[in-house]
Amino acid sequence: MKLGSTHSKEARAKISAAGKGRTAWNKGLRGVQVSWNKGLTKDVDSRVSSPKLRAHLSRVHESQIGVKRSEETREKMRGPKSLGHRRAMSQGRLGMKFSDSHKENMSKVRLGKPTGRIFTEDAKRRIAEGRTAWLSKQGFPWPPTNIEYALQMLLENAGFEYEAQKQIGRYVVDFFVADGNLVFEADSNFWHKDKEREQTRDEYLIEKDIGAVIHLNEEDLISWEVPK
């Protein structure tokens, strides 16, 4: 076939029909397949700098602009990708520089889409079970600290029914009060210096349908502490 040649719709339909049912050359091959021109330059291989090849690739690219494909076809084009393939693509992007317009376009594409890792319900269940098993090995539930014991006395004096050291999602809270769906935290001055981390934790608990997260520090609980 001559590079750069064009075909009528009828001819393309015949070519497409003739290719149906054929097995792809890379079917069953494992790992990342290397393209024929990887590492080649115009100094070592004339095909790379061939004007006919460049013209052909340019026409192929332009012919694909605006082409609408079915969701099934797009899913096949997207993957699934092997772990080795994803790692190779990630390594290939290292050091790449994008123009401001390209960055803006990428941001628009990602807008509204979830970020970070997405787990199936089964994976979430196994992660939760693993965390529970880990906590058990660490001697959970742990004995309360002085400040936690002071908060416990305050809650009991106020008539609250509570559950100490309750696990909610990936966190363990100091006290959970079912009436009002409240979380009470006893914040010592030493262990709770990272306010940004505390805020992230609180936002996560609110997303888990907690009504409010109430923090009490050492100054708030000093009158409830038991003398050492």
Can you characterise this structure?
This protein has 228 residues and is an alpha+beta fold. Strands 1-2-3-4 form a 4-stranded mixed beta sheet, sandwiched between helices. 44% of the residues lie in helices and 11% in strands. The chain has a domain at 140-224: VSR Endonuclease (Endonuclease, Chain A, 3-Layer(aba) Sandwich), CATH 3.40.960.
Oligomerization category of the chains in this entry: single chain
Indicate the CATH class of one domain.
Alpha Beta
At CATH level 3, the topology of one domain is Endonuclease, Chain A
Strand percent estimate? 5-15%
The CATH architecture category of one domain equals 3-Layer(aba) Sandwich
N-to-C series of helices and strands: HHHHHHHEEEHEH
**Which descriptor suits the 3D outline?**
elongated
Rg value: 30 Å
Mean pLDDT, all residues: 76
Low-confidence stretches: none
Per DSSP E runs of 2 or more residues, the count of β-strands stands at 4
Residue share in helices? 40-55%
Q: Number of helical segments?
A: 9
Secondary structural class: alpha+beta
- In CATH, the homologous superfamily of one domain goes by the name VSR Endonuclease
Strand order of the largest sheet: 1-2-3-4
The main pleated sheet reads as: 4 strands, mixed
N/C terminus separation: 91 Å
